[in-house]
Amino acid sequence: MNSFEVVNNLFINIFNDPTINLLPNMQTGDIPGWDSFKNVEILLACEKEFNIRFRSKEIDAMRTVGDLAAAIELKLANAQK
Amino acid sequence: MTQLILKQKESLINEIFLMLRNSKYQEVIDLIKKSNNSNTYSEELVLYLGKAMACMGLEQQAMESLVSYITFNPKVNLRNVFEELFEPSLYKFSLKLISEQIKKYPLSGYLRSQKSLIHLRMGSLDLSTSSMLEKLKYGLIDDGDLGLLVQIRNSYQQYGEPPLEVSKLLNADAVKSIFERSVYQKTLSLGRDCEFGMVQREMGAEPISLFRWGTLTFESFIRLLENDFVGFASNDSAFLQYENTENFDEFWFHDGNYGAKIHTHFNAKNIDLDDTYESLLEKSKEHFLFLVRKLREELQDGEKLFVYKSGNEMSLADAFQLSKTMTTYGNNKLLIVMPQGYNSAEHEILSESLHLGRLSKFWVDAQKESIQFREWNNIVQKSYNIFYGKP
Fold it and tell me: Phi first, then psi: what are they for B325, rounded to 5°?
């Protein structure tokens, strides 16, 4: 499973909605109940799932789910080096 | 069996990636054609086939392949195509494809942005500007275009006065609004309540920060900063309290060490069935400790405009004390907003890192309708432009 698919599963758990099917350009507000509070929950879930830590600048640069997945991929790739 | 097929598909895609990176375009075409009738065939292969053909100069065939790929799912695949083709050797081909696709999707803002971006990369500043003007004409310009607009503006700055068309673009209300809203992505609310958080929301920014939706006294805030947040949201100090009033129906997070009170947004409607007070408290502590970490980094980075709303007239001594405490972390810029007192000046510069702003009045009873958005915006824009220049 790639990072995007894992993130999709995390969203399913967080929003308790098995029908969620993320698109890369989705952003805060595109799912009912998705607000800035939920963003913290999402980021924490990603940190735990992928065993990574986001820096503040990385978080600020994220606008979409695609950005989140890309940030995760980059951190995982850097961790492997 | 399905798992095996998925692995084979993944392996094929990886192989194609490597071949494309090594410019082995004919090999890519051969490999994809070979997999056409097998289990490993997937929609993505049509994209890579198109790219390989484009790289070999087989433009007509590339167009056909890429157009058929886009048709599978235009909403997603249009972007996939142009992200995949975004390299200098394919700029001219991409522009041809964009022209074709614009006929099919005339209201696609994305296609016009890509056209503008490619022209910019090719050094055709006037054509880049024209594409954005076209996008503006159709009401398609949005916050996502900020980066491109900044590049266009910066490209002309070396010439002094920008040409007429560029001025027309940059002075359009929609574009000025984008630049103004972008400032709020770089602001950070330090409380003392949620009013500035609502202003950020109104301007399209939803930053996550510790005190955007919270409050604590000025003295406690200074102490928190001086203590480097030690003891905040600890096991001994953190607790939740449910508030059910006219304005609020949720658990509030409290920190007993610093007297902080912050929204959690947890209420009976959105908590899990098996949640308990203890589980909600744990979630809240985790949530706010994450935000402490973030705020600490932001203070160290010193790249944000920190905005602190003071409920009443703050003395200059207090204002400088807060500014000084913040600069022990990093080169931080602070805007303190107060109600109009005897001094009716809207905006004052106190130092290189400290500004004061004054509003005619703050919001009343936490009602969004009573917020003086225009005044807030004037002060924030002024402060930002002085501290950081144009967005």
Answer: -65, -40
What is this model's ipTM? 0.94
Whether B169 and B265 map to the same domain: the answer is no
Q: Which residue in chain B is spatially nearest to A55 when comparing CA positions? A: B294
Tens digits of residue pLDDT in B162-189: 888 999 999 999 999 999 999 999 999 9
CB pair distance less than 8 Å for A44 and B287 = yes
Same domain for B33 and B161: yes
User: Which of B135, B163, B179 is at the close of a domain?
Assistant: B179
| Predicted TM-score of the model (pTM) | 0.84
Residues of chain A neighbouring B75 (CB-CB closer than 8 A):
23
What span, in angstroms and rounded, lies between the C-alpha atoms of B178 and A46?
Answer: 30
Q: Choose among B264, B265, B290: nearest Cβ to A44.
A: B290
Domain shared by B120 and B229, yes or no: no
Peptide bond preceding B21 in cis form (omega within 30 of 0): no
Position B334, amino acid: L
Counting one residue from chain A and one from chain B, the pairs whose CB atoms sit within 8 A come to 44
